[in-house]
C-alpha cells in the first residue's frame, strides 16, 4: 500500500498580513529557541519558535513575537547576520532585507531602545537574493535582475561587483571558505567566484531555463541543487558541470529550492501559485517520489529549521510549518 505523502501543516502562526518571505536564523544565536523573521507588505517581524520536537516539555509548539520593524515598502528577501546573539547583554538582532524599491536595508536592534537601519543603494532592478558572510558577518552579497552580483561592507560601500550574463537569482556563501561565493543566473548557469582574485573558478550548467532558484548544500559543499522550468536538478561538482539527477516536480513552474540544514539528501521545493494551489514538496534523494507534499493557497518563501527536519513557508496571513522524518 502506497502511503499518501500529502499533509497539512503541523503548526501555523496567524499574521497580520500576507507573508512574502520567511527565514529561520541559520546561525546559533546562543538561545534554546529559534529565531525566525518574516516580511509582509511594509514590515518585518522577528519572533522566537520552540517546537516539541526539540523541547519535550512543550505541547506542540510555542511562538512569540520579539519585535516588529516598520519597513515602509514590500519585503522581498531577508538574510540573518551571524552576529545575532540572544545570550549577550544587551541582545543583538541583526539582519538585512531586500525590498521592492531595489534597496537593501541593514537592521540592528537590541530589542529595546536601539533600533537602527542603514540603506544600501546601488542595484538598478529587483534584488532576488542576499546573504551575509557566514563567518564574520562583515559583508553582504546580493544578486539582482540588473545582471550584477555585488558585495557590500556594513557601511554600505560596495567592495566587489560581478557582471552577470542574465538576472542573478540566488547567491550562497561557502560556510567555511568565505572567499568562495556561488551565484546562480536565470539563464541556467551557476558560477563559483573567488572573492580574493574576483575571478570565476568553476561553472555548472542546467541546460534548462528559466533557472529560478539554486542552493549550495552546506552539509556537503560538493552538492548544488536548483529548480529550472518544472524540474529540480542536483549537481555533484566533483563529477560534472551537468546535473547528476533531475526530475519534473511542479506543473506550473518550480519556484524555490532549499537544502535541509541537517541532512545532505533532504531538500524542499515550491511551485508558483498557478491554477492549483502552490505546491510545497520535500524530497529525499533515496526516494523516487516526494516524501511530503503540502498545499498552500498562496505560498511564498521557504526556510529550513537549523536543527530539525522542519520547513517554514509564508502564506495568506499565516506562517505554516511542516515536519518530516529524517
Automatic annotation (TrEMBL):
<feature type="repeat" description="WD">
    <location>
        <begin position="120"/>
        <end position="155"/>
    </location>
</feature>
<dbReference type="InterPro" id="IPR015943">
    <property type="entry name" value="WD40/YVTN_repeat-like_dom_sf"/>
</dbReference>
<dbReference type="GO" id="GO:0051301">
    <property type="term" value="P:cell division"/>
</dbReference>
<keyword id="KW-0132">Cell division</keyword>
<comment type="function">
    <text>Component of the Nup107-160 subcomplex of the nuclear pore complex (NPC). The Nup107-160 subcomplex is required for the assembly of a functional NPC. The Nup107-160 subcomplex is also required for normal kinetochore microtubule attachment, mitotic progression and chromosome segregation.</text>
</comment>
<dbReference type="GO" id="GO:0031080">
    <property type="term" value="C:nuclear pore outer ring"/>
</dbReference>
<keyword id="KW-0137">Centromere</keyword>
<dbReference type="GO" id="GO:0007059">
    <property type="term" value="P:chromosome segregation"/>
</dbReference>
<keyword id="KW-0995">Kinetochore</keyword>
<comment type="subunit">
    <text>Component of the Nup107-160 subcomplex of the nuclear pore complex (NPC). The Nup107-160 subcomplex includes NUP160, NUP133, NUP107, NUP98, NUP85, NUP43, NUP37, SEH1 and SEC13.</text>
</comment>
<dbReference type="GO" id="GO:0015031">
    <property type="term" value="P:protein transport"/>
</dbReference>
<dbReference type="InterPro" id="IPR001680">
    <property type="entry name" value="WD40_rpt"/>
</dbReference>
<keyword id="KW-0653">Protein transport</keyword>
<keyword id="KW-0539">Nucleus</keyword>
<dbReference type="InterPro" id="IPR019775">
    <property type="entry name" value="WD40_repeat_CS"/>
</dbReference>
<keyword id="KW-0159">Chromosome partition</keyword>
<keyword id="KW-0158">Chromosome</keyword>
<keyword id="KW-0853">WD repeat</keyword>
<dbReference type="InterPro" id="IPR037626">
    <property type="entry name" value="NUP37"/>
</dbReference>
<keyword id="KW-0811">Translocation</keyword>
<keyword id="KW-0509">mRNA transport</keyword>
<dbReference type="Pfam" id="PF00400">
    <property type="entry name" value="WD40"/>
</dbReference>
<dbReference type="GO" id="GO:0000776">
    <property type="term" value="C:kinetochore"/>
</dbReference>
<keyword id="KW-0906">Nuclear pore complex</keyword>
<dbReference type="InterPro" id="IPR036322">
    <property type="entry name" value="WD40_repeat_dom_sf"/>
</dbReference>
<keyword id="KW-0677">Repeat</keyword>
<protein>
    <recommendedName>
        <fullName>Nucleoporin Nup37</fullName>
    </recommendedName>
</protein>
<dbReference type="GO" id="GO:0051028">
    <property type="term" value="P:mRNA transport"/>
</dbReference>
<keyword id="KW-0813">Transport</keyword>
<keyword id="KW-0131">Cell cycle</keyword>
<keyword id="KW-0498">Mitosis</keyword>
Amino acid at each position: 500500500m502506497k502511503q499518501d505523502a500529502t499533509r497539512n501543516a503541523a503548526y501555523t502562526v496567524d499574521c497580520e498580513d500576507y507573508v512574502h518571505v520567511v527565514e529561520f536564523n541559520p546561525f546559533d544565536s546562543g538561545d534554546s529557541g529559534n529565531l525566525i523573521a518574516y516580511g509582509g507588505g511594509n514590515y518585518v517581524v522577528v519572533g522566537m519558535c520552540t517546537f516539541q520536537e526539540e523541547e519535550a516539555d512543550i505541547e506542540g509548539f510555542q511562538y512569540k513575537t520579539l519585535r516588529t520593524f516598520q519597513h515602509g515598502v514590500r519585503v522581498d528577501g531577508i538574510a540573518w547576520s551571524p552576529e545575532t546573539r540572544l545570550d549577550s547583554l544587551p541582545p543583538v538582532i541583526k539582519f538585512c532585507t531586500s525590498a521592492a524599491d531595489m534597496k537593501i536595508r541593514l537592521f540592528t536592534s537590541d530589542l529595546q531602545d536601539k533600533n537602527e537601519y542603514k540603506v544600501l543603494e546601488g542595484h538598478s532592478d529587483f534584488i532576488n537574493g542576499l546573504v551575509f558572510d557566514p563567518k564574520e558577518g562583515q559583508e553582504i552579497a546580493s544578486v539582482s535582475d540588473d545582471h550584477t552580483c555585488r558585495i557590500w561592507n556594513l557601511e554600505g560601500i560596495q567592495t566587489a561587483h560581478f557582471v552577470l550574463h542574465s538576472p542573478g537569482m540566488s547567491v550562497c556563501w561557502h560556510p567555511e571558505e568565505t572567499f568562495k561565493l556561488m551565484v546562480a543566473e536565470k539563464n541556467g548557469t551557476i558560477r563559483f567566484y573567488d572573492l580574493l582574485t574576483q575571478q570565476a573558478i568553476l561553472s555548472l550548467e542546467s541546460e534548462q531555463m528559466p533557472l529560478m532558484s539554486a542552493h549550495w548544500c552546506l552539509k556537503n559543499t560538493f552538492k548544488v541543487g536548483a529548480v529550472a522550468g518544472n524540474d529540480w536538478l542536483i549537481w555533484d561538482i566533483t563529477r560534472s558541470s551537468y546535473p547528476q539527477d533531475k526530475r519534473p516536480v511542479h506543473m506550473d513552474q518550480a519556484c524555490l529550492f532549499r537544502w535541509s540544514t541537517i541532512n545532505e539528501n533532504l531538500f524542499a521545493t515550491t511551485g508558483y501559485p498557478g491554477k492549483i494551489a502552490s505546491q510545497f514538496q520535500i524530497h529525499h534523494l533515496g526516494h523516487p517520489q516526494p516524501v511530503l507534499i503540502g498545499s498552500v493557497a498562496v505560498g511564498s518563501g521557504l526556510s529550513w529549521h537549523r536543527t530539525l527536519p522542519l520547513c517554514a513557508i509564508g502564506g495568506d496571513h499565516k506562517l505554516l510549518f511542516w515536519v518530516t522524518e529524517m
